[in-house]
């Protein structure tokens, strides 16, 4: 892609490597690759999938425990997704904002829950069943983060069943890890 100067795809390729690093738990590397992808697209003036880049940076920072950066990136992702009408990224951003809110302050559970449920609703409206399942897993993780283990059981069971039905083995394993914490 570099020789072809396929800027949008090149920026997304670096972001994709960053996403893979995120899923492998290599967070510092993930930040570097995602930021490189963002820089490439920014220089080209492209907004294509920029919301996704902010979203993944937010997810990485959530895992790294930096709620300030996680929140800032989630807000950027949400604003951009709304600006360019990317409903799926709007939904993911709302889910991330919910996760961040409860990690920042457990007393924000109601606000956090509303954000996650709104994100799930948007994904259902978009008929994105795999992402709906991930949304339910995120809801369960939100409840765990808030110390509401009993509330986490229903959404994690729902996510687990959906992952099993769709053959999403990696996500099924994550759901089972959450169940083990209950």
By DSSP, the count of extended strands is 0
Mean residue pLDDT: 94
Global geometry: globular
SS-based class: mainly alpha
The CATH architecture assignment of the domain at 1-93 turns out to be: Alpha Horseshoe
CATH topology-level name of the domain at 1-93? Serine Threonine Protein Phosphatase 5, Tetratricopeptide repeat
Instruction: Give a short account of the largest sheet.
Output: none
What this model shows, in words?
With 182 residues, this protein is mainly α. Helix content is 82%, strand content 0%. It has helices at residues 7-23, 27-44, 50-64, 67-83, 87-104, 109-125, 129-145, 149-166, 169-181. The longest helix is centred in the N-terminal third of the chain and has 18 residues, at 27-44. The protein starts with 6 loop residues before the first helix and ends with a helix. The model has no long low-confidence stretch (mean pLDDT 94).
Task: Give the structure's gist in a few sentences.
With 182 residues, the protein is mainly α. The protein has helices spanning 7-23, 27-44, 50-64, 67-83, 87-104, 109-125, 129-145, 149-166, 169-181.
Provide key terms for this protein:
single chain, 182 residues, mainly alpha, Serine Threonine Protein Phosphatase 5, Tetratricopeptide repeat, 82% helix
Give the secondary structure arrangement, pairings included.
Layout: H1 7-23, H2 27-44, H3 50-64, H4 67-83, H5 87-104, H6 109-125, H7 129-145, H8 149-166, H9 169-181
Helix pairs in contact: 1-2, 1-3, 2-3, 3-4, 3-5, 4-5, 5-6, 5-7, 6-7, 7-8, 7-9, 8-9
